[in-house]
Write a structure and sequence with these properties.
Blueprint: H1 20-71, E1 80-85, E2 90-95, E3 101-106, H2 109-114, H3 134-141
Antiparallel strand pairs: 1-2, 2-3
């Protein structure tokens, strides 16, 4: 008989037959990967739709900003006064920021009537600053104030 001597040992990856229990575990693992991939795909689609909507909003904003730059103006809220010129029987609509007359129109009878001294309509209580009780009216008429004015 010949004598043998171990030179060295090593580990290798080699085919090993699975037991029935190991095979069932692998089926479960595969099933879990399909479930997780489905969830990931759904999240991906939702994020893709969100980003697409965000991109669409950004493109709309770019168009809006481009139009403003090209026209060199944008619509903003501007105070406009309606001024009665009783001698001309006209009402002028005048921008407060530039003084530009936007429109002139014929004055109505009511507007002309208001321009006659002593025929102005009574002041309308339009909120907290205009709220006075009967005592408050007297105090204001007599020049008395409570320091809030």
């Amino acid at each position: 008989m010949s004598e043998t001597t171990l030179l060295y040992s090593e580990s290798r990856y080699l085919p090993v037959k699975l037991t029935p229990s190991e095979l069932l575990d692998r089926v479960d693992q595969l099933s879990e990967t399909f479930r997780l991939a489905g969830q990931l795909e759904a999240r991906h689609e939702a994020e893709k739709a969100r980003m697409k909507a965000e991109l669409k909003d950004m493109e709309a904003r770019q168009i809006r900003e481009t139009k403003i730059i090209e026209s060199r103006h944008e619509d903003r809220r501007v105070d406009v006064r309606h001024i009665l010129d009783a001698s001309a029987v006209l009402v002028r609509e005048v921008r407060q920021d530039t003084g530009e007359v936007l429109r002139e129109r014929a004055a109505t009878r009511d507007e002309l009537q208001r321009s006659i001294p002593g025929t102005e309509p009574e002041a309308v209580n339009d909120g907290p600053e205009g709220e006075w009780d009967d005592e408050g009216d007297e105090a204001h008429e007599n020049g008395e104030t409570d320091g809030d004015d």
